[in-house]
Amino acid sequence: MPEPSQPKEYGHWINGGWQQAEQGHYQVVNPATEEIVGHAPEGTAAEVGAAAEAARAAFDGWSRTDPRERAAVLERISALISERAAELVPLVQAETGATMRVAQSMQVPTAADRFRRYARGALEPDTLPLAPHPVAASPLAPGGLIGAAAVRRPIGVVACITSYNFPIANLAGKVAPALAMGNTVVAKPAPQDPLGCLELGPIMKEAGLPDGVYNVVTGSSAVTGEALVAHHDTDMVSFTGSTAVGKKIAEAAGGQMKRTLMELGGKGAAIVLEDADEKTFKSAVMAVGSTFSFHSGQICTAPTRMLVHRSLYEQAVAALTHYAQSLTVGNPVDNSTIVGPLISAAQRDRVEAYVEGARQQGARVAAGGERPELKPGFYAAPTVLADVTPDMTVAQEEIFGPVVVVIPFDDQDEAVRIATGTPYGLYDYVFSSDAGRAWAFAARLRSGNVGINTAQRHPETPFGGFKESGVGRDGGSFGLHAYSELQSIVWPS
């Protein structure tokens, strides 16, 4: 694999080999330097069809492969990703613009961890025995004692369409459980940073994955993804991205009754109750501050709304302002940098438009709000917006950048109304000195995930959202359930 400074021209990865792009390539650009990282293939419907057909042809053999062999292949994939980290990290860092800290700890290692986790998953029991049941005779069959079992079976060909913030980690979270269950995959990475996902193809082949089990097609427009969702050989669509695109995919998939797993947008609320002591309050500030410092706020689980009891409101604004102003914004390969660039000029402009819109609606910019004097690169300053009301656009829509809004509340009922008053319900957080009180409060939140006094994640929990934040759950053993169908087997005892 060449260094990111030596742009490589990629093909699609189809049926265990590189396939030259019929319609040429497009440039993948480093968000920090605006230099070309590599050239990704511009996909066509025909190329998508070739990938889907390869996956369909490989399904029968892979689905009937002994789970122990599937586990061994996934374990080897994990080991090879770890072995190639010195080559993969610079590539993924360059195409995502992630800081070295994030690229080294959360991008490549997480991908290896997920393949390792689902190597174990391939060996998890797939059969749930059910107690024998006495049944009376009917016109259909004689009476007797009937035995049964529920068995998880692979779905078939899974289209994995991923987001740009954590390209290979997000893809590994889909591909690993899908393969563990015996499915085959056609991956469609986000157009901004698909190169690391393409590089996984040769790694998987070297690990012993049969040809056609993992395929990758890319493209800079919606054509590739739309063709993949519509193709008759895909049985399931697993998508991570915006709610708007997720709705379009769901509509198209519904026409063919394809299974879907949708991890969509979020507008996380960190709710600080009035009983928060000094330690809890500091934990809340640090958790909300991760919106600035963790991949420049480009994460769907970010607590981008801080809902604070009015008695703590000004203290919260001051603490977040100090936090935001203390962060170093700059080149992500510099070890002193905490906040790197956004993925593109378009995303930077979108974030700036949200901040300007908030100003016009009456919000106070307590920190940030102006473009950093850094060139080249697509940088946005860590921004704190105070005096925000729940109906403002910045309090309702996902911004996907280093912007936090702070909103006061007077009692728990108001906090619940504000927290649940958006179309989203992915990840919320409750901070209280009384964990039991926070547990009870969490039950009132229409959110798929709730952190109590922490922004840490647990890797085995079911992950997904309520409302417009998605459909279905993955993570841990729940990921195996997501990529399988239940088949009931019945027999006379």
Automatic annotation (TrEMBL):
InterPro entries assigned: Ald_DH/histidinol_DH, Ald_DH_C, Ald_DH_N, Aldehyde_DH_dom
Keyword Repeat tagged: no
A molecular function (GO) term: oxidoreductase activity, acting on the aldehyde or oxo group of donors, NAD or NADP as acceptor
CDD domains: ALDH_CddD-AldA-like (cd07089)
Key words of the record: Oxidoreductase
One Pfam family this sequence matches: Aldedh
Coiled-coil residue spans: none
Domain annotation Aldehyde dehydrogenase: ranges: 18-489
Keyword Oxidoreductase on entry: yes
Family the entry assigns: Belongs to the aldehyde dehydrogenase family.
PANTHER family in alphabetical order: ALDEHYDE DEHYDROGENASE (PTHR42804), ALDEHYDE DEHYDROGENASE-RELATED (PTHR42804:SF1)
Protein name: Aldehyde dehydrogenase family protein
The species this protein was found in: Streptomyces coryli
Taxonomic placement: Bacteria, Bacillati, Actinomycetota, Actinomycetes, Kitasatosporales
